[in-house]
Amino acid sequence: MVDCLAANGYLHYLAVDGESRFVHRHRLPTLWKAVLDGDVKVSDRGIFYKIEESDNAPKRLLVVFSGMPKDPNEGSPWRYFTQNYRHAHNAIPGDCVMLRVADVGGVKGSFYSNTADDPSNQEDISSLISATARDRHIPDSRVCLLGCSKGATGAVLHGLTFGWNFVAVDPVLSDSYYEIEMSDLHFTSGNVFLDSKDVLFDRLSEKVQNNVDNDLSANYSIFLTSRRSAQYGRVCSFVQSIAKIRPSLFSFDDPRIKSHPDVARSVMWATMPLVVCALMGFRVPRGPVDL
C-alpha cells in the first residue's frame, strides 16, 4: 500500500500515536514548516534545497546529497532531507558555496533518480545544480558532489551523467541486498522506480565507457568503501566497469566499521580532505588504494 501511494506521488510526512499521514508531493510546501519559514527553499522545478553562501566571493560549489535518516521510521518531511556533513563548512575553502539537496520522492526517497511519479526528477536536480553554479559564475571544474549511502548514489548518478566531480562514500548501486536480505527495506521492488539500480548503473557505466565525445578522465570520480560493508562488491565491480575514466577507489579496513551504516562516520577523516582536493584541483591517487 505504501509503495502504491508513493508511486502516485503521495509522501509519508507524519507518524504520531499510531497514525500515519500522507500528502501529495506538490502539496508538501504548503505544510512543511521549514519551507514556510524559509529555511528550506523549493526550486521552480520542485526540488527542495538549502544554500549556505560563501564567506568570500564564490569560486567553488559543494553539493551535498542527503542520505538515509538515522531513524528509518522518521515521521516528518525531514526524512527526505537528512543533514549529513553538518560541519562541512568548517572543512572547505571560504570561497565555497554549499548546496544541500533533499531527496523528496518514493518511500525512503527517490535516490535522486527518476520515479513513476516524477520522471524528470534527475533532470530537475541537475538544473538546480547548474543554475546555482551559473548564477555565481562557478565553472563546472570547481563543482564537487558529495554524499554517503543514498546520498552517494545521487553523487555518482549525477556526477557521471552530467560531468561533475564527486566524492561518493559507500554508494548503494544495487537493490539486491536490501530487497533480498533486508526484506525490501528501501521499497524498491514495487512500482515506484522506473528502473532498478542495477539496470540504471549498468546503463550508466556502458554510456561512460562508450562516450568518446565527453572524456571524464580529467574529473574527480572518487569512491570510498570498505570490505566490511555489504555494498563493497558492487561498488568495486562498478568502479572496474568505468575504468576508462580512471576513477579513485579507497577501500578501508577499519575495525570501527561493522557494516554499511558505519562507513561514513568512520572514514570522515579521509572524506573531507578528498573533497577539498576535488574543489581545489589538487592531485588525488587514481585506481585502488587500500587503507
Question: What can you see in these coordinates?
Answer:
By secondary structure, this protein is α/β, with parallel strands linked by helices. It has one domain (2-290): 3-Layer(aba) Sandwich (Rossmann fold). It contains nine helices and eleven strands. The protein has helices spanning 2-7, 33-36, 121-135, 150-162, 176-180, 197-210, 232-241, 263-266, 268-280, and strands at residues 10-16, 19-24, 41-42, 48-52, 60-65, 96-101, 143-148, 165-169, 221-226, 248-252, 287-290. A nine-stranded mixed sheet has the order 3-4-6-5-7-8-9-10-11, with helices on both faces. A two-stranded antiparallel ribbon has the order 1-2. The protein starts with a helix and ends with a strand.
- The coarse silhouette is globular
User: Looking at this structure, what is the CATH superfamily?
Assistant: Alpha/Beta hydrolase fold, catalytic domain
Note the gap between the termini: 44 Å
- Helix-strand category: alpha/beta
Instruction: Give the percentage of residues in beta strands.
Output: 15-25%
**The CATH class:** Alpha Beta
Mean pLDDT: 93
The amount of helix comes to 25-40%
Number of domains: 1
